[in-house]
Specification:
heterodimer, A: 476 residues, alpha/beta, Rossmann fold, 2 domains, six-stranded parallel beta sheet, four-stranded mixed beta sheet, 22 helices, 12 strands, 50% helix, globular, B: 204 residues, 5 helices, 20% helix, binds iron/sulfur cluster, NagB/RpiA_transferase-like (chain B), L-lactate dehydrogenase complex protein LldG (chain B), FTHF_cligase-like_sf (chain B)
């Protein structure tokens, strides 16, 4: 069954990306934020000489989970149920929303507090709650920013990455009820303080919380949430009822496996040695925390992804967002251009697989195949490999197009070294006059049939000499 | 078919075959000469926590000095009573009934022990043991003072997790005060959890 919900782009990627490319404020915000996090990640990763071994173990644990998923899910269900939780199953987004909405309605509550969760965004739970008159209150600072702005998230980890501090200050001043304007500066500490005051009463009065989970441990029935601000702890501790929406691929076999992921995740996501707070709970603990605990296990297209031998590695993803932060395409267009709640390199391979062929067909082309995402990925998802695989499927499914003809021609040329050298020489002859007019190394607009290719990218002119030619000249 | 059976059937049909071996060679020993207490202190200071060191005899005095501007001390049921012997600040011992509103009083400070501490990442693990209490106690007050015995300090996360007596108890791993990286991806301390974290390293 293919996945549904907020994973299908409304516009093809090139159309959605175009206005973003023209937004220089957006590009500045993105560049500053992604570069800050990239540098931090490199520093903390370099502290661990065993990083590669951790990545290999992380990938292997997830592959083992994918091979044993049905048994592990049943094991999780039995352990969580024995510990006092109620486990529900959902085939798709609508079914998952239906279960969560019914559970919330049965408590009689009018509002729920929420911990940031990709799964609930994916299934469109906020919209479903609003439709029955329940107000979902996002409690993560960045989610709150996005919710106050009436906007949608643009990054997995930092949904408001496209806002800078001045814009956030303006937004709080205009939209946050009862905000103290005198104390509100654009200092991040003042902004965090405003969010604390705004949400504190909500936490104390909330009767229902909704979360996702970073990990679900089969052996014990334990759920784990990794966070920073303490809003997660508030939601997991104070309300009477806790509803957690969990993708089936979040399973880990044993508590011991957490040791790998609690090292991989924080360093890859925020570049910290450890995130400020990690909470783990197993069903109901009498006298401590929610006494009504529900877990909704969601497929929503994941079983289809699992069936693809090349594409299934996308299910290893732990949503750290490292691949977004190193991606040259993401850095220029931001998360919204990808349409789905999963942006960036992982979104380019996960969204089209979850939603099935047809929808999201342009997403696997939203990449330069530079490979930075694979290098950064803590569970070694070979994103370029999956991109190429999906492109082939999409091209095979489509009829003849100029792109397809060009790709075919390129394949023919690339198969033979003599043809390749001849093509390069021809390209240089074609490029020579262009060097005289525009920039010395790139051209803005290519003639048809390559007009669309060059609509949003500069095309480098071929080098004056190939490496092979230089080598034979120097060494001959 | 109900949702559970349908999802399981689909996953059975889709999954890859063959066993996967996981190699567990990712847990290096501490480098020779590593001083775990020094390492933990360095990490905690990096998170902008406050760190003190003392022995058991000095602990009541050190705690008293940290509590001078507290309005009330929140106490888990199993906190050793000698620890707070040096202070006359009002105590609020949790019998399981303290409400978030009571814990949110201005100037409230909670004092706890911990289950285990991981030096390499600067992480304190609470497992709701008697000297730590319910999760809400260490969440709502604005200051948390946590006493860590030196024999509770281990090097890495794998050892820390393996030393937990019962991983199904509610676990809270704490690495510094509450913080956010949501504004321009820079860490800022102080959002919803305690904005001030003080660790007292209890030397033998
Ligand atoms: S694909 Fe890898 S790098 Fe990207 S979010 Fe997932 S785990 Fe992180």
């Amino acid at each position: 069954m293919t996945g549904t919900g907020n994973i299908v782009a409304a516009l093809p990627f090139p159309t959605a990306a175009k206005p973003k490319l023209a937004d220089s404020q957006l590009r500045d915000n993105l560049r500053r934020a992604t570069h800050t996090i990239r540098d931090k990640r490199l520093r903390t990763v370099a502290e661990l000489p065993e990083w590669e071994r951790l990545r290999l173990a992380g990938a292997a644990i997830k592959d083992d989970v994918l091979a044993r998923l049905p048994e592990l899910l049943v094991e999780f269900e039995a352990a969580a149920t024995a510990a006092g939780a109620t486990v529900h199953w959902a085939r798709d987004a609508a079914e998952a929303c239906g279960i969560a909405v019914d559970l919330a309605l049965s408590t009689g509550t009018r509002e729920v507090v929420k911990i940031k969760s990709m799964a609930t965004q994916e299934i469109g739970l906020n919209e479903a709650l609003e439709a029955v008159g329940i107000t979902p209150i996002e409690t993560d600072l960045a989610e709150l920013i996005v919710q106050l702005a009436g906007d949608t998230p643009s990054h997995i980890l930092v949904p408001a990455i496209h806002y800078n501090r001045h814009q956030i200050r303006e937004l709080f001043a205009r939209r946050m009820p009862g905000v103290d304007l005198d104390a509100l500066t654009d200092d991040p500490a003042a902004l965090a303080e405003a969010a604390r005051r705004h949400l504190r009463a909500r936490f104390f009065s909330a009767r229902v919380a909704i979360s996702g989970a970073n990990f679900a441990i089969a052996e014990t029935g334990t759920l784990v949430v990794v966070e920073s601000e303490g809003n997660g702890r508030m939601c997991l501790t104070l309300p009477e009822t806790l509803i957690s929406v969990v993708g089936v691929e979040k399973i880990l076999p044993t508590v011991r496996d957490l040791d790998v992921f609690l090292q991989l995740l924080p360093r890859s996501s925020t570049g910290e040695r450890m995130n400020p707070y990690t909470s783990a709970w197993t069903g109901v603990t009498p006298g401590d925390g929610p006494q009504q605990v529900h877990v909704i296990l969601v497929d929503n297209g994941r079983s289809d992804v699992l069936a693809d031998p090349v594409g299934r590695q996308a299910l290893r993803c732990i949503r750290c967002s490292a691949c977004l932060n190193v991606c040259p395409v993401y850095e220029r267009v931001g998360g919204h251009a990808y349409g789905s709640v999963y942006p960036g390199p992982i979104g380019a391979i996960l969204s089209p697989q979850l939603s099935g062929a047809g929808a999201n067909a342009t997403l696997p082309f939203a990449s330069t195949l530079c490979g930075a995402c694979f290098e950064a990925c803590p569970v070694r998802i070979d994103i370029p490999e999956v991109l190429v695989h999906l492109r082939q499927e999409i091209v095979a499914a489509a009829g003849a197009t100029p792109e397809r003809a060009a790709m075919r021609a390129a394949a023919w040329v690339l198969r033979d070294r003599r043809r390749y050298s001849a093509a390069l020489r021809a390209a240089r002859r074609f490029a020579a006059p262009l060097r005289l007019v525009g920039r010395p190394d790139a051209v803005r607009h290519l003639p048809w049939p390559l007009t669309r290719w060059s609509a949003s990218r500069d095309t480098p002119l071929p080098a004056r000499e190939t490496f092979r030619e230089w080598w034979s000249r120097e060494r001959a | 078919m109900n949702a559970r059976d349908e999802v399981l059937t689909r996953l059975r049909a889709a999954r890859p075959s063959g066993a996967v071996t996981v190699s567990r060679d990712y847990d290096p020993p501490a480098p020779d000469g590593t001083d775990l207490v020094e390492l933990l202190t360095d990490r905690l200071l990096d998170y902008r926590a406050t760190v003190r060191r003392c022995d058991a005899a000095a602990l009541p005095t050190v705690l008293a000095s940290l509590l001078t501007d507290a309005s009330v001390v929140v106490v888990p049921p199993g906190l050793p009573s000698a620890w707070l012997g040096g202070t006359d600040v009002a105590q609020l011992t949790d019998d399981g009934g303290l409400t978030p509103g009571q814990l949110d009083l201005p100037g409230a400070v909670v004092v706890t022990g911990c289950a285990i501490a991981c030096a390499r990442t600067g992480t304190i693990i609470l497992d709701a043991g008697p000297d730590q209490g319910r999760r809400v106690l260490t969440l709502v007050p604005d200051r948390h003072i946590c006493v860590v015995r030196v024999d509770q300090v281990v090097y890495g996360i794998p050892e820390a997790l393996s030393r937990l007596t019962d991983p199904t108890r509610p676990l809270t791993m704490i690495s510094g005060p509450s913080a956010t990286s949501d504004i321009e991806l820079n860490r800022v301390e102080g959002v919803h959890g305690p904005r001030h974290l003080t660790i007292i390293l209890l030397l033998p």
